[in-house]
Amino acid sequence: MPQSVRSCVIVVENLPVPFDRRVWQEAQALTRAGWRVSVICPSNESFPAEFEVIDDIAIYRHPLPPEGRGALAYFREYAWALFHEFRLLVKVQRERGFSIIQACNPPDLVFLAAAPFRLLGVRFIYDQHDVSPELFAVKFENKGFLYHALLFFERCSYAMADFVVTANATFKDLAISRGRKDPSQVEVVYGVPDRKRIHRVAPEPRLKGDRRFVIGYIGIINEQDGVDHLVKALGELVARGFRDFRAVVVGSGPALEQVRELAASLNLSDFIVFTGYLNGESLLSHISTFDIGVIPDPYNEANDVMSMNKVFEYCALGIPTACYPLKETKRLLGGAGVYAPTLEPAGLAEACLSLMQDEALRARCSAEATRLSAETFVWDHEAKKYVDVYERVLAAVAARAGEKDIRAA
Questions:
Q1: Do domains 7-192+378-408 and 205-375 have the same CATH topology?
Q2: Has residue 241 got a pLDDT over 70?
Q3: pLDDT bracket for residue 50 (50, 70, 90)
Q4: Angle between the 70-95 and 110-118 helix axes, to the nearest 10 degrees?
Q5: Where are the domains of the chain?
Q6: Is 296 in contact with 233 (CB distance < 8 Å)?
Q7: What's the rounded Cα separation, in Å, for the pair 291 and 317?
Q8: What gap in Å lies between CA 244 and CA 6, rounded to an integer?
Q9: Which CATH superfamily is domain 205-375 in?
Q10: How far apart are CA 282 and CA 232, in angstroms?
Q11: By Cβ atoms counted within 10 A, which residue in 141, 185, 192, 213 is the most buried?
Q12: Distances in Å between the alpha carbon of 332 and those of 137, 309, 312, 321?
């Protein structure tokens, strides 16, 4: 199929689509705006199909090797992913065509698979979800060769990009300072949920049982996500004699078994429920039961500048939040959150306890969360900014083509 002007392909490595909510909403926004959208992503047990079409979006999936640790495991995973990403880019170009490739990080290596297509005139948008160098430094406590390699790959992604989309304003500052992008080439698009998909429904009554409060978590369960901090904070509450709660952890990930074992070792089986991965009405009924949402991501140089999806998801349901005082989280949540007085699980327990013991505080935080969701965290606004990026990239291409025609004449 020849290259189509209003067609694109989105490449994401770390999560399958439509499970990756941000990428899926972006793809749907482009489709509604008249673009032909394809997505390249990994497969997993929940999304095993190599190819399927959902809502007119063509999804091409590839396998990934098991997650490992260290330089060799990183090299194996990234090399495997790049091979499949390039292979599938060739396939998508042949079957559906595209004029723009959007690369979603982490990691910051998709530009390598996209580079040959740049020589053919295809445009490149870099969608920066995370700060990969800082994530690596936190996970492996190492700022050696691989850390500096990741900084280099990030700079390459910035350099090749016609436009950079960032997940928050802090990342935009990095694109300008670290990536030397002109501010006019960078747009902030927050990954807020579409209220048509995430909203209150009738709660799941079995979760609360005879307890007064449900303390909830929703998200991926990786080592860096701090679910172990949540489990330890629950242990602190029980040790202090506060037992009138049940915690519900909604989600799955590589560290799920590890935190299950931690909960068992702290004798918390009667206080915590691990649901695993949920979607649809089951997901909504579970999170609609939350009285308090927890963001347990601990303080580090990566988490401090991240926009946590849980901020937007809890606010969409008017749920007050207990969390650590991370810079970006505080900036987004403001008065909808109660912040741990210390950076340890005991501090997180204190924030949860404050919300459980003070009904007026819970009501104020809930009201502010609802206001933020209605006035600030609005996907329709973010979707417009995002689609406008694509239109601006196309306009720039057309302008350059016009200049060439004038020079040729």
A1: yes
A2: yes
A3: very high
A4: 30
A5: 7-192+378-408, 205-375
A6: yes
A7: 10
A8: 56
A9: Glycogen Phosphorylase B; (3.40.50.2000)
A10: 27
A11: 192
A12: 25, 11, 9, 12
pTM assigned to the model: 0.88
CATH code for the structural domain at 7-192+378-408: 3.40.50.2000
- Could you tell me the two tokens for 203? 């709660």
Yes or no: say if 34 and 6 are a contact pair by the CB < 8 Å rule: yes
> Is there a contact between 22 and 376 (Cβ–Cβ < 8 Å)?
no
Query: Which residues, 6 or more positions from 404, have their beta carbon under 8 angstroms from its beta carbon?
Result: none
Strands 7-12 and 272-276: unpaired
Average pLDDT over residues 1-30: 89
Looking from the CA of 177 toward its CB, the CA atoms found within 13 Å total 6
CA angle 132, 137, 139 (to 5 degrees): 90
Written as six digits, the tokens of 318 are: 């008017």
pLDDT in tens, 323-359: 999 999 999 999 999 999 999 999 999 999 999 999 9
pLDDT tens figures, 109-159:
999 999 999 999 999 999 999 998 998 888 877 788 888 999 999 999 999
Residue whose pair of structure tokens reads 């935190």 in the numeric block: 259
Each residue's pLDDT tens digit, 355-402: 999 999 999 999 999 999 999 999 999 999 999 999 999 887 766 655
